[in-house]
Amino acid sequence: MNQYGYYLGMSQDQKDIVAMVREFAERELDPIVREYDEKSEFPIPLHEKWGEMGLFGQDVPVEYGGLGLDAVTRYCISEELAKHDAGFLISNSCYAFGLSAILADGTDAQKRAACDRILRGEGISMAITEPQSGSDVGSTRTSAVKVDGGYILNGTKCFITNATLCSACVILAVTDPDAGYHGMSLFLVEKTDSGVSVGKHEDKMGMRLSDTADFIMENVFVPEDRLIGVLGDGFAQSMKFLAGKRPISVAGAIGVAQHALDLAIEYAKQRKFKDGPIAKLQGIQFMIADMEMRVQAARAMAIYGAQMTDAGIPIGTLGNCLKAFGSEMCYDVVNMALQIYGGYGYSREYPIEKLLRDVRLYSIFEGTNQIQRQIIGKTLLS
Amino acid sequence: MNILVCVKQVPDTAEIHMDPSTNTLVRTGVPSIVNPFDKNALEAAVRLREQHGGSVTTITMGPLQATQALRECYALGADRMVLLTDRRFGGADTYATSYVLAQAAKALGPFDLILCGKQAIDGDTAQVGPMIAEHLHLPQLTYACEISIEDTTVQVVQECDNDHICLRAQLPAVLTVTKSINEPRLPNVMRRLQANRTEPDTFTADDLPGLDFSCIGLSGSPTKVRKTFIPVHEKQTHIIDGTIPADAVSVLFSLLDTAKISLTAR
Fold this sequence. Notes:
Chain A is an alpha+beta fold. Chain A contains twelve helices and ten strands. Chain B has helices spanning about 35-50, 65-75, 95-110, 130-135, 190-195, 245-260; strands at about 1-5, 10, 15-20, 25, 30-35, 55-60, 80-85, 115, 140-150, 155-160, 165-170, 175, 200-205.
């Protein structure tokens, strides 16, 4: 972040909020990251402190008692938090993942109830992925069969962030098997509903502060008033709200990349080669320059996307571009930082190794980069 | 319980360095923060308010830019922000500063307690808190690491080099607090945003009744800085012949005596 903040037009409010997030992260998160990365656990007390700061309300509109922060501000918060730990960022922000779907298409009563829960610190997750259908959402098998007064849901959702921590989950399920993409709907499923269980915690390569597990439903009755949006529109609703979240989602990748760049610069100034620091070598300077260019480009693109979201303009394929470009930029930048660190970069004693483990996820989750390219290409050529 | 908390906006010492050619602090581009000990004082005040009710007023003397420090205090739980700002206050030393703060306390009060951090991290004088007490003729309890209120008295545990002392005084009183008294809470975002939309109550020298203008600002400051310099740290190594241990110890002790280093257990 330069003297102007993340971008030239940053307001005093945004600068202050980012400073508060930094204070939180430096004081509370930095000292425990290594321990929680090793034991692969989300630090719940820190999430509670996040709430004490009033930040549960970041995604909740003002009319429902929240802060009603715009997408640009939420981008800034996410980038700052990711500089300290991207896994914590993912689980922390996914407490309100399902809320986005409810705010986009839910009834006023559903929105109010969901916002109250988020403000109390209860998580509402979102579950789309299944063992046989990741990016291929069309292959969703979880079924919702109409019965008197509601629906019976059956199926297993996998790799669900906060499956263990959440109090409820928004589920994409098939309501009309013959209607393809138009035969899926969204439902709010409570963890306390009879027939709901959670699988074992995923022992992941990276993002280990984030909670990930299966969300399993066996003959779960869900009353009609928990249908979110229009019956049969679940796929379109999901894609729409996921696209709107892209700029904030990619903020994590940009934050980690910036952190890796900062570490590489610091190390290059200290590490000696013959008579001077390796920072004096043109090979290193070119690497640092390449890293800076890519981080700047991704950030400009993401903030542009967030500004469009705030203006109510659908970001279209910019979201897909952002997802693919941001995640690949991040991996490359962290990998170059590791190269600058040399052997120490490969050692777990130093911070870069963990960053590389963490960022590998970005080109996989929320639709692989191959799917993103397919969408971009198809859209441009249609 | 109405409490006044005096705060100072200081340069972030983690970001500061000296200009070796002039021996002065390079302050350009250095971010300003609320003096960390003052945050401890504010936290102590907010906790007392939570226990006993009342209000917490936070006050600072400085340029308009010091409003940022007050807004940070508001986000940490202060009820009211007061800025004392006037060109005539400029250049004040600890005496002139404490005089203006004391006069403001009289004008804004009455307060049951006036809390200060034990010292500011830029000047490290630890004089302003005690001087406010003297100007107001109030009891002063310094270096408090615990505070409790009983009826009309305040009791503190004073943190000393080697031990702790329990002190009690009649309210109202002036207290200075140490870092170990508490861990300041994290700021609240909603309050921070409210603070950004709120202006502090601003007072100039003309707004403080009975102010003696000869006691404020540079002209009211008896402290004269003759010179600032970076202390030179010299490192000397003595190698003592250890062939006969008893002799080596004796030599070591005589060297320590010469250097005036005491080995008295702390």
